Amino acid sequence: xxxxxxxxxxxxxxxxxxxxxxxxxxxxxQTLVAVKVLHTSLQSSAVKKFRREAQLVAGLRHPNxxxxxxxxxxxxxxxxxxMEYAQKGTLRQQIPSGxxxxxxRALAYLEQMAAALDFAHQARIVHRDVKPENMLLSDSGQLLxxxxxxxxxxxxxxxxxxxxxxxxxxxxAPEQLRGKPQPASDQYALAVVAYEWLCGVRPFRGxxxxxxxxxxxxxxxxxxxHNPRLSPxxxxxxLIALSKNPAQRFP
Length: 251
Ligand code: ADP
Ligand code: MG
Ligand code: MG
Prior knowledge:
Number of strands: 8
Largest sheet: 6 strands, antiparallel
Strand order of the largest sheet: 1-2-3-4-6-5
Bound molecules: adenosine-5'-diphosphate, magnesium ion
Strand content: 15-25%
Protein backbone atom coordinates (compact mmCIF):
# COMPACT_ATOMS: atom_id res chain seq x y z
CA UNK A 1 0.00 0.00 0.00
CA UNK A 2 0.87 3.68 -0.13
CA UNK A 3 3.17 5.10 2.47
CA UNK A 4 3.35 8.70 3.66
CA UNK A 5 6.19 9.67 5.97
CA UNK A 6 6.39 7.05 8.70
CA UNK A 7 2.84 5.90 8.11
CA UNK A 8 1.40 3.04 6.09
CA UNK A 9 -2.03 3.91 4.71
CA UNK A 10 -4.50 1.14 5.54
CA UNK A 11 -7.79 2.40 4.10
CA UNK A 12 -9.63 5.61 3.31
CA UNK A 13 -11.97 6.74 6.09
CA UNK A 14 -13.07 10.11 4.83
CA UNK A 15 -13.07 12.54 1.97
CA UNK A 16 -13.60 16.26 1.89
CA UNK A 17 -13.37 18.97 -0.71
CA UNK A 18 -9.60 19.23 -0.55
CA UNK A 19 -8.28 16.27 1.32
CA UNK A 20 -8.58 12.56 1.82
CA UNK A 21 -8.37 11.01 5.25
CA UNK A 22 -6.89 7.56 5.77
CA UNK A 23 -6.50 5.17 8.63
CA UNK A 24 -2.74 4.82 8.97
CA UNK A 25 -0.29 2.84 11.02
CA UNK A 26 3.09 4.05 12.19
CA UNK A 27 5.57 1.68 10.55
CA UNK A 28 7.69 1.35 13.69
CA UNK A 29 5.37 2.06 16.62
CA GLN A 30 2.39 0.27 15.03
CA THR A 31 0.07 2.93 16.45
CA LEU A 32 -3.12 3.75 14.54
CA VAL A 33 -3.61 7.34 13.40
CA ALA A 34 -5.69 9.39 10.98
CA VAL A 35 -3.70 10.76 8.02
CA LYS A 36 -5.17 13.75 6.22
CA VAL A 37 -3.57 14.32 2.82
CA LEU A 38 -4.36 17.14 0.44
CA HIS A 39 -5.24 15.86 -2.98
CA THR A 40 -3.93 18.95 -4.69
CA SER A 41 -0.35 20.10 -4.67
CA LEU A 42 0.15 23.61 -3.36
CA GLN A 43 2.40 26.53 -4.25
CA SER A 44 5.20 26.81 -1.73
CA SER A 45 3.69 29.98 -0.25
CA ALA A 46 0.46 28.10 0.40
CA VAL A 47 2.37 25.19 1.95
CA LYS A 48 3.96 27.68 4.37
CA LYS A 49 0.57 29.09 5.28
CA PHE A 50 -0.85 25.62 5.74
CA ARG A 51 2.07 24.72 8.00
CA ARG A 52 1.60 27.84 10.10
CA GLU A 53 -2.04 26.95 10.61
CA ALA A 54 -1.09 23.35 11.49
CA GLN A 55 1.33 24.74 14.09
CA LEU A 56 -1.47 26.74 15.68
CA VAL A 57 -3.77 23.75 15.86
CA ALA A 58 -1.00 21.45 17.08
CA GLY A 59 -0.58 23.81 20.02
CA LEU A 60 -4.20 23.32 21.08
CA ARG A 61 -4.35 20.65 23.75
CA HIS A 62 -7.82 20.06 25.03
CA PRO A 63 -9.81 16.90 25.85
CA ASN A 64 -12.45 17.86 23.25
CA UNK A 65 -10.10 18.81 20.41
CA UNK A 66 -8.58 16.22 18.10
CA UNK A 67 -4.87 16.08 18.85
CA UNK A 68 -2.54 16.84 15.97
CA UNK A 69 0.44 14.47 16.21
CA UNK A 70 2.57 15.28 13.22
CA UNK A 71 2.78 17.27 10.02
CA UNK A 72 4.80 16.79 6.88
CA UNK A 73 5.06 17.73 3.23
CA UNK A 74 5.20 14.90 0.68
CA UNK A 75 6.96 15.57 -2.64
CA UNK A 76 7.61 19.16 -1.48
CA UNK A 77 4.05 20.23 -2.30
CA UNK A 78 1.51 17.94 -0.65
CA UNK A 79 0.99 18.70 3.03
CA UNK A 80 -0.31 15.99 5.31
CA UNK A 81 -1.51 16.05 8.87
CA UNK A 82 -1.33 13.17 11.33
CA MET A 83 -4.05 13.13 13.99
CA GLU A 84 -5.29 10.87 16.71
CA TYR A 85 -7.72 8.37 15.21
CA ALA A 86 -11.34 8.60 16.37
CA GLN A 87 -12.63 5.08 15.98
CA LYS A 88 -16.34 5.79 16.14
CA GLY A 89 -16.41 8.31 13.30
CA THR A 90 -18.37 11.54 13.05
CA LEU A 91 -21.59 12.61 14.70
CA ARG A 92 -23.08 12.95 11.22
CA GLN A 93 -22.47 9.23 10.74
CA GLN A 94 -23.84 8.45 14.21
CA ILE A 95 -26.84 10.76 13.98
CA PRO A 96 -28.50 10.80 10.55
CA SER A 97 -29.90 14.14 9.35
CA GLY A 98 -33.38 14.73 10.70
CA UNK A 99 -32.85 12.80 13.94
CA UNK A 100 -34.11 14.54 17.08
CA UNK A 101 -31.97 13.95 20.17
CA UNK A 102 -33.09 13.90 23.78
CA UNK A 103 -32.18 17.33 25.22
CA UNK A 104 -29.89 15.77 27.86
CA ARG A 105 -27.86 14.02 25.16
CA ALA A 106 -27.80 17.09 22.91
CA LEU A 107 -26.65 19.23 25.83
CA ALA A 108 -23.88 16.79 26.74
CA TYR A 109 -22.52 17.08 23.19
CA LEU A 110 -23.03 20.85 23.00
CA GLU A 111 -21.25 21.41 26.29
CA GLN A 112 -18.18 19.55 25.04
CA MET A 113 -18.12 21.49 21.76
CA ALA A 114 -18.62 24.81 23.56
CA ALA A 115 -15.66 23.97 25.83
CA ALA A 116 -13.50 23.15 22.80
CA LEU A 117 -14.48 26.37 21.03
CA ASP A 118 -13.98 28.52 24.12
CA PHE A 119 -10.48 27.08 24.46
CA ALA A 120 -9.68 27.73 20.79
CA HIS A 121 -11.07 31.26 20.96
CA GLN A 122 -8.85 32.04 23.96
CA ALA A 123 -5.96 31.03 21.70
CA ARG A 124 -7.41 33.40 19.08
CA ILE A 125 -8.31 30.61 16.69
CA VAL A 126 -11.70 30.66 14.97
CA HIS A 127 -12.80 27.25 13.71
CA ARG A 128 -15.15 28.51 10.93
CA ASP A 129 -16.53 25.09 10.03
CA VAL A 130 -18.47 23.83 13.06
CA LYS A 131 -20.88 21.07 11.98
CA PRO A 132 -21.60 17.44 12.87
CA GLU A 133 -19.28 16.20 10.08
CA ASN A 134 -16.40 17.76 11.99
CA MET A 135 -17.28 16.28 15.39
CA LEU A 136 -15.67 12.91 16.09
CA LEU A 137 -16.45 10.33 18.75
CA SER A 138 -13.50 8.75 20.51
CA ASP A 139 -13.48 5.12 21.69
CA SER A 140 -14.40 6.32 25.17
CA GLY A 141 -17.40 8.31 23.90
CA GLN A 142 -15.70 11.69 24.27
CA LEU A 143 -16.65 14.23 21.59
CA LEU A 144 -13.73 15.74 19.65
CA UNK A 145 -13.84 18.84 17.49
CA UNK A 146 -11.75 18.39 14.34
CA UNK A 147 -10.99 19.95 10.97
CA UNK A 148 -9.69 23.06 12.65
CA UNK A 149 -8.65 26.20 10.86
CA UNK A 150 -6.86 24.33 8.12
CA UNK A 151 -9.89 24.87 5.90
CA UNK A 152 -9.38 28.62 5.91
CA UNK A 153 -5.91 28.38 4.44
CA UNK A 154 -7.14 26.07 1.75
CA UNK A 155 -10.11 28.28 0.98
CA UNK A 156 -7.73 31.18 0.52
CA UNK A 157 -5.19 29.32 -1.53
CA UNK A 158 -7.10 27.03 -3.84
CA UNK A 159 -10.52 27.94 -5.23
CA UNK A 160 -13.74 28.51 -3.37
CA UNK A 161 -16.05 27.57 -6.24
CA UNK A 162 -16.32 23.98 -5.06
CA UNK A 163 -19.56 22.13 -4.38
CA UNK A 164 -18.18 21.40 -0.90
CA UNK A 165 -18.92 25.00 0.10
CA UNK A 166 -22.63 24.51 -0.48
CA UNK A 167 -22.97 21.88 2.22
CA UNK A 168 -21.47 24.28 4.72
CA UNK A 169 -23.88 27.19 4.17
CA UNK A 170 -26.33 25.50 6.53
CA UNK A 171 -24.20 26.50 9.54
CA UNK A 172 -22.73 29.80 8.40
CA ALA A 173 -23.22 32.96 10.45
CA PRO A 174 -24.37 36.09 8.59
CA GLU A 175 -21.08 37.90 9.18
CA GLN A 176 -19.13 34.88 7.93
CA LEU A 177 -21.24 34.84 4.76
CA ARG A 178 -20.24 38.49 4.39
CA GLY A 179 -16.59 37.47 4.67
CA LYS A 180 -15.96 38.59 8.26
CA PRO A 181 -15.78 35.48 10.47
CA GLN A 182 -15.08 35.99 14.18
CA PRO A 183 -15.28 33.82 17.31
CA ALA A 184 -19.02 34.50 17.63
CA SER A 185 -19.47 32.89 14.19
CA ASP A 186 -18.55 29.54 15.76
CA GLN A 187 -21.18 30.12 18.45
CA TYR A 188 -23.79 30.72 15.73
CA ALA A 189 -22.78 27.52 13.90
CA LEU A 190 -22.98 25.53 17.14
CA ALA A 191 -26.44 27.01 17.73
CA VAL A 192 -27.56 25.76 14.29
CA VAL A 193 -26.32 22.31 15.33
CA ALA A 194 -28.22 22.66 18.63
CA TYR A 195 -31.39 23.62 16.76
CA GLU A 196 -30.96 20.63 14.45
CA TRP A 197 -30.51 18.18 17.32
CA LEU A 198 -33.32 19.61 19.46
CA CYS A 199 -35.87 20.07 16.66
CA GLY A 200 -34.90 17.37 14.16
CA VAL A 201 -34.73 20.02 11.46
CA ARG A 202 -32.29 22.85 10.69
CA PRO A 203 -33.53 26.43 11.04
CA PHE A 204 -32.95 27.28 7.36
CA ARG A 205 -33.38 24.95 4.40
CA GLY A 206 -33.10 25.10 0.62
CA UNK A 207 -30.41 25.81 -1.95
CA UNK A 208 -27.11 27.47 -1.00
CA UNK A 209 -28.47 30.87 -2.06
CA UNK A 210 -31.78 30.39 -0.23
CA UNK A 211 -30.10 29.25 2.98
CA UNK A 212 -27.58 32.09 2.82
CA UNK A 213 -30.35 34.67 2.32
CA UNK A 214 -32.22 33.32 5.34
CA UNK A 215 -29.12 33.43 7.54
CA UNK A 216 -28.76 37.07 6.55
CA UNK A 217 -32.37 38.25 6.70
CA UNK A 218 -34.85 35.73 8.17
CA UNK A 219 -35.54 35.15 11.85
CA UNK A 220 -35.48 31.43 12.72
CA UNK A 221 -38.77 29.82 13.76
CA UNK A 222 -38.92 29.43 17.54
CA UNK A 223 -37.71 25.94 18.43
CA UNK A 224 -40.91 25.00 20.23
CA UNK A 225 -42.88 25.22 16.95
CA HIS A 226 -41.01 22.04 16.01
CA ASN A 227 -40.70 20.51 19.47
CA PRO A 228 -43.23 21.86 22.02
CA ARG A 229 -41.66 19.84 24.83
CA LEU A 230 -38.52 21.99 24.94
CA SER A 231 -38.26 24.46 27.79
CA PRO A 232 -38.66 28.19 27.04
CA UNK A 233 -35.21 28.76 28.57
CA UNK A 234 -33.53 26.31 26.20
CA UNK A 235 -35.35 27.85 23.25
CA UNK A 236 -34.29 31.35 24.25
CA UNK A 237 -30.66 30.31 24.74
CA UNK A 238 -30.43 28.87 21.22
CA LEU A 239 -32.20 31.87 19.69
CA ILE A 240 -29.81 34.32 21.39
CA ALA A 241 -26.85 32.37 19.97
CA LEU A 242 -28.56 32.64 16.56
CA SER A 243 -28.75 36.44 16.69
CA LYS A 244 -27.97 38.02 13.31
CA ASN A 245 -25.79 40.58 15.04
CA PRO A 246 -22.75 38.85 16.60
CA ALA A 247 -22.68 41.49 19.37
CA GLN A 248 -26.10 40.25 20.54
CA ARG A 249 -24.91 36.66 21.03
CA PHE A 250 -23.36 35.43 24.28
CA PRO A 251 -19.96 36.90 25.19
P1 ADP B 1 -12.31 18.13 5.23
O1 ADP B 1 -11.59 19.38 5.60
O2 ADP B 1 -12.03 17.73 3.83
O3 ADP B 1 -13.77 18.20 5.58
P2 ADP B 1 -11.95 16.47 7.59
O4 ADP B 1 -10.75 16.73 8.42
O5 ADP B 1 -13.24 16.96 8.12
O6 ADP B 1 -11.66 16.95 6.10
O7 ADP B 1 -12.05 14.89 7.34
C1 ADP B 1 -13.00 14.35 6.44
C2 ADP B 1 -13.67 13.14 7.08
O8 ADP B 1 -12.67 12.16 7.43
C3 ADP B 1 -14.39 13.43 8.38
O9 ADP B 1 -15.69 13.93 8.17
C4 ADP B 1 -14.37 12.06 9.04
O10 ADP B 1 -15.36 11.21 8.48
C5 ADP B 1 -13.00 11.52 8.66
N1 ADP B 1 -11.98 11.85 9.68
C6 ADP B 1 -11.24 12.97 9.73
N2 ADP B 1 -10.39 12.98 10.77
C7 ADP B 1 -10.60 11.83 11.43
C8 ADP B 1 -10.03 11.25 12.62
N3 ADP B 1 -9.08 11.89 13.33
N4 ADP B 1 -10.49 10.04 13.02
C9 ADP B 1 -11.45 9.41 12.30
N5 ADP B 1 -12.04 9.90 11.18
C10 ADP B 1 -11.63 11.10 10.74
MG1 MG C 1 -14.53 18.36 7.52
MG1 MG D 1 -12.26 21.08 6.35
